[in-house]
Amino acid sequence: MFPEFTLRYSSLPERFYAPAEPDSAHQPRLIAFNRALAEELGFDLAAWPGDEEAAALFAGNRLPPGAQPIAQAYAGHQFGNFVPQLGDGRALLLGEVTDRAGRLRDIQLKGSGSTVFSRGGDGRAPLGPVLREYLVSEAMHRLGVPSTRALAAVSTGQGVVRERLLPGAVLTRVAASHIRVGTFEYFAARGDQEALALLVEHVIARHYPELAERPASERPLALLEAVQRRQAALVARWMGLGFIHGVMNTDNTAISGETLDYGPCAFMEAYDPATVFSAIDQQGRYAYGNQPQIMQWNMARFAETLLGLMDEDPQRAIEQATAVIEAFPSQYREAWLGVMRDKLGLGGGWVEDAALAEDFLQALRAGGADFTLSFRLLADCAASSAADEALLALCPQDAEPLRAWLPRWRERLVADAGDPEGRAGRMRRTNPLYIPRNHQVERVIQAAQKDDYAPFEALRAVLAAPFEEQAGLEAYALPARAEEQVVRTFCGT
Question: Domain for residue 306, yes or no?
Fold first, then answer.
């Protein structure tokens, strides 16, 4: 049933991980299975067992043939403070599989019990965070954002103690890999240059094979440059969707360039760069508008781990790394402008486009307009000015800045070739109608805690086609009413 496992990461020296076994779940029950992803990974679905056996596998009660579960070691800067040892405290890497496209993919159980890295924790995951990660990670994939994926969710039949007793669950997560900036920090903190050199070669072979053609002495710097480019593009995509990661610690920054760890994440509704949802982000470090600067900071921490491999002369290494890190703002800006041009229906590369995009965002802020719906309705305005009033109606505070902006935008559109309907269609394929709005996810969680998974299945189906209008499901596109608003999210650890 499972594709054949390879054990690339566990072939590294044992200081990279700790062997572990998942804890047994009392009464595992399959909540969701992602058949499309399973097919992509090379699962033999013709030999798929019944739900009971599948639940046992995805809960960790039974290990698939060839799996060798390990907890990966890593460190991390958490809210700016360095913790020299974190590691997989509630997750186990079963191994890697080669999918049908020839890509190597990790399969990991999250919430499967304690490991040597649990630091006194139970290693379990409450049902709510598992469902949140399942929905949001799959939505991000459908929205075109590099992301870990959700293969399955299983309830365990036993409680997890947090602020109160909650039902427990296990998520089966798929990733290009689970190697993080914090993985490099773990060995840098120990002065283990041999491990860092091994890790550089492992990451290049897995994620950046084009760098293997470079001389060995150039690869650490080239890796920093390549990782940073991916991270700049990733954050630009987040910003284009109003996505707030919520906990951009270095241990949550994947070297592959995928979005990793959907804890207190959320999608912004009314546009405001200061928006924060995470209950643990008391100072707003990871607010929506701070995300580009935080990623640059994370890349600086990554650069520090590679200095000893870049050049024998410490000063030259620092100068090389500094030049890379200082390029981040321009790399991000270029990626962000590309995202915004697509969202605004702009072709070409006019220098005024950045100001036009920024002024649109400021008009949304002045009006208190919903971020997602504003861009979506702008596509209608590209087809006909008759749609302008519907867009302006999204501004409950002050619609005048947006009203003044629309003629400037239309003047800019004249410079681009193409018919209005064609432009509107392209914009609708870029600007989603449906996102996993926080109040909808919370509604799913509340129902699931009462053993009602119908809302989960309904939202899951809607989010599978985020750009398409779905008849009768208009309510899923609407922002929360005042009484529905959820202003705090929790990571569930």
Answer: no
